[in-house]
Design goal:
The chain is of the alpha+beta class and 136 residues long. The protein is 35% helix and 37% strand. It contains four helices and six strands; from the N terminus they run βββααββααβ. A hairpin with a 6-residue loop joins strand 1 and strand 2. The longest helix is centred in the middle third of the chain and has 23 residues.
Amino acid sequence: MKRNATAVWTGTGKEGKGHLTTQSTTLNKTQYSFSSRFEEGVGTNPEELIAAAHAGCFTMKLSFNLSNAGFTPGTLETKCVVTLENGSVTSSALTLKAQVDGISSDKFAELVKDAELNCPISKLLDTDISVEYSLN
């Protein structure tokens, strides 16, 4: 499987502007700029997209882990905060709220740790990854 996206940028890093389009066109000429990346401007940015990718990948991996262990996942909600400092992504912090009936806290912790270490986006990222969770 291969997926793709295209970035188009015009102008300088600070004054220029760009847009992103994904293969699925979920992003279709979606604006990004210095302002949307480093300030609070309208549009997306690479770090936000990495956060979405990591949250989605981790959550899906955990769902597979739970199913493979014989549990039916209820709702799994993951927020990811990616930190950019001094030109590097320094961390990806995942916060999970989970509803899974009939699972012990120890077994859940084991499956969460596996998802943290083994989702493809976690494997891709060369940064500190943390997971906090609550299980209802």
